[in-house]
Amino acid sequence: MDRDGLAEFLRRRREALQPRDVGLVGLEQGRRRRRTLGLRREEVAELASISADFYKRLEQGRGPRPSEETVEAIARALLLTRDERDHLFRLAGRQPPPRRYRSEQASPGLLSVLDCCDTPAQIVSDLGVTLKQNQLAEALLGIQTGYTGFARSTIFRWFTDPDERRRFPSDDHAWHSQSYTAHLRAVHNRCANDFEAKDLVHELRRRSTEFAEIWDQHDVALRADTRKRILHPTVGLLTLDCHILTSQNQMENLIVFTAVRGSEDAKRLALVLEHRKDEAPEPYLEAHAEP
């Protein structure tokens, strides 16, 4: 517990708030000449439903370590952002709670951006589960939303389903394996209570010797913007830029594929998109679904 850091942070956040910010409008009007900068300690304590003396001691750097429930209550009273709340937990010597669990649905914000994309784009969870694709992404990469079980994860399919690799040149397979594994380790290490990530890692280690060997190298790196080579069954090899936009909850990414304007890749991509409506769903998707 960082007592001095906690005391300083609480004081500064309290002084940055006015009564009207927390709904104490009548109180503010009744006390036009307030000597205290921002909220009073007693007001924060009342908003957090804790003892005024306890809160006072925290700001003086001499209080006991507050419980997780108390830290959360103070964070709400001070209107802290997620990042500020996590910082408060660490100052108090507590593990920040998970921001939220994964959802089966893509977040509205990323869906809005996806709807505006005029190039292949899809929303993928941090565990590699494709939540939503536009038609252009389906034409480029095939329909990726028809899987079940562990097979919903692109990472899982990469190491367990040979068909997953057929869209990428064999020279790039080792790079993809390293990248997927380093990304999964970063997600796995982010939260001790992420049982979805733990279960995925356990199953991959059981199913894939390749994954187990790379996992034991302890490389850690979240996937970032890169250039990717894709083998399309109609137009052949495409080299595309892969742009990644991460949602605020850090559990979803919008991945956008683009080609350099005027390049041969751009011409081939245009051909893929032109014939997207004629491309039937790929039968191997259902055949390789995980029970």
UniProtKB/TrEMBL annotation:
Cross-referenced SUPFAM superfamilies: lambda repressor-like DNA-binding domains
Listed InterPro entries: Cro/C1-type_HTH, Lambda_DNA-bd_dom_sf, MLTR_LBD
Pfam families linked: HTH_31 (PF13560), MLTR_LBD (PF17765)
Superkingdom classification of source: Bacteria
Domain HTH cro/C1-type span(s) in chain numbering: 31-85
Protein name: Helix-turn-helix transcriptional regulator
Lineage: Bacteria, Pseudomonadati, Myxococcota, Myxococcia, Myxococcales
